[in-house]
Design brief:
There is one protein chain. The chain is α/β, with parallel strands linked by helices. The chain contains ten helices and 21 strands. The strands form four sheets. Strands 8-7-6-9-10-11-12 form a seven-stranded mixed beta sheet, covered by helices on one side. A seven-stranded mixed beta sheet has the order 17-16-15-18-19-21-20, with helices on both faces. The chain has a five-stranded mixed beta barrel with strand order 1-2-3-5-4. The two termini are 42 Å apart.
Length: 459
């Protein structure tokens, strides 16, 4: 930052700002005396009074003090919760414009990392979600005792402050009503709930997954200890009051600061799995199994990934980061063989059972990291000519990219949930591959998240 400007400004100062574009995290971007300013909840073409929140050497973090002229992209009917909890970061933008800005976020990421010939990439229009609200099939609700009251809901955006929720625009109705009934049961039974100040209490989170196809619920209680007081009573009350619940599990996580899930999950009542239908295939889902959060849009995502892969009868397909086998199993009937790799052992067990459930005979699954198992397959004279990668937000492992570039499979499809790591990975993949097109897909309406399918072909 220009030192003169630095000396002129301090936190709390205000200045007029016109928002020019959207940033890779969905924030509005403007320029004040040639210095870049990031403003959450601001939209291109907003004219605002910006208040400085943080000053840095070469950028400013601000917030909206006042909107002088509202952008034409603004949604006039913003849900009240959008200013209170995470998961609604784009709710202030009209839906058709959310789609446009998601493609812009993808372009911003490419512009930041500049993979080979990125200016010429064909970015197709973002595919809209079947539902823009009530689409999420799973929720993790923290439950806490604060000032003598039991609160259950979601955290305030960017904090650990819990907001008690009775509704959530993106969450399915059955999930929300079940959560409130369970909270009431917990209160009635006086089950000790986590108190963050006293570091006491047993129950810390209620996780609910909903099957759209079968209208059933899988409930998991995350507890701080093995002991789960009044387990039998809670099961009986849930059975009586929420007949849609078909499975109740307990996950034990004694760590108050680490990840949500602990290592041990045990079924305490009902079905071992929740079932869901994806493109006519049935999948068993254990509590920790990964499934796209937008069930209805997942069918469309997989159709588009299939189109990009263009499967043929003699293809040998590697389904990297296969999870519970969803993508590979939906493709198995169209290829010669599927090899799935996943680092989580429970997911591979689920994948094997899902292949059996759907009578898939031409699929094999391996536990391990993709960068280690893939070279082993090549050593064993298994040479996939088609590879589909669907990595977590951190993107592809560097060693996996090495193997792909060395082996050079003819067909490569990258399904990404993070435009930044996608753009970074493309800087290496484009050494040997040409990007045919990028297809953004909206899996998370009302948020800046965008899923992208990239069709790559060997140079």
């Amino acid at each position: 930052m220009n030192t003169n400007i630095t000396s002129e400004l301090k936190v709390g100062d205000r200045f007029p700002l016109t928002i020019k574009r959207i940033g890779i995290n969905g924030e509005g971007i403007g320029f004040f005396k040639h210095v870049i300013v990031f403003v959450p909840k601001a939209v291109p073409e907003d004219v605002i009074v910006c208040e400085i929140v943080e000053l840095h050497d070469n950028f400013i973090n601000g917030k909206i003090h006042k909107i002088r002229t509202a952008s034409p992209y603004r949604n006039p009917d913003v849900p009240e919760l959008a200013s209170k909890v995470g998961g609604l970061e784009f709710a202030h933008i009209k839906y058709e414009d959310q789609l446009k800005f998601k493609a812009d976020i993808l372009r911003e990421s490419l512009d930041k990392y500049k993979p080979y010939a990125y200016q010429n990439y064909r970015i197709k229009p973002t595919v809209p979600s079947v539902q823009q609200e009530k689409y999420r099939n799973k929720a993790q609700f923290p439950i806490q005792e604060i000032d003598g009251k039991i609160l259950c809901g979601l955290y305030k955006d960017g904090t650990q402050d819990l907001v008690d929720l009775t509704e959530m625009p993106t969450q399915m109705d059955l999930t929300m009503s079940a959560m409130r009934k369970i909270v009431q049961i917990i209160k009635d039974l006086n089950i000790p709930v986590f108190n963050p100040e006293k570091k006491s209490g047993i129950l810390r989170m209620i996780v609910i997954r909903e099957s759209v196809e079968f209208n059933k619920l899988q409930v998991t209680f995350i507890t701080r200890s093995q002991k789960f007081l009044k387990e039998r009573q809670i099961i009986e009350k849930i059975q009586a009051e929420i007949p849609e619940v078909s499975s109740i599990s307990q996950n034990i996580n004694p760590d108050d600061k680490g990840s949500v899930w602990g290592d041990e999950t045990k079924l305490i009542w009902g079905d071992e799995y929740l079932q869901e239908d994806i493109n006519g295939y049935i999948f068993n889902l254990s509590p920790r199994a990964f499934l796209q959060l937008n069930s209805l849009q997942t069918d469309k995502l997989y159709d588009l990934a299939t189109e990009a892969l263009h499967p043929e009868a003699d293809d040998v397909l590697l389904d990297a980061y296969c999870g519970v086998g969803t993508i590979g199993i939906t493709l198995a009937d169209q290829v010669k063989h599927v090899y799935g790799i996943e680092i989580i052992p429970e997911a591979i067990e689920d994948a094997k059972k899902n292949a059996e459930l759907n009578e898939i005979k031409n699929a094999d699954y391996y536990v391990g990291s993709v960068d280690q198992v893939y070279p082993q397959l090549l050593t064993d004279d298994i040479h996939p000519n088609a590879v589909i990668v669907d990595p977590p937000r951190v993107g592809l492992d560097a060693k996996l990219i090495d193997t792909i570039l060395r082996h050079r499979p003819a067909k490569l499809v990258y399904v990404s949930c993070n435009p930044s790591t996608l753009a970074k990975d493309l800087t290496r993949l484009t050494n040997k591959y040409r990007v045919e097109y990028l297809q953004p897909v909206d899996m998370f309406p009302q948020t800046p998240h965008v899923e992208t399918i990239v069709k790559l072909s060997r140079r």
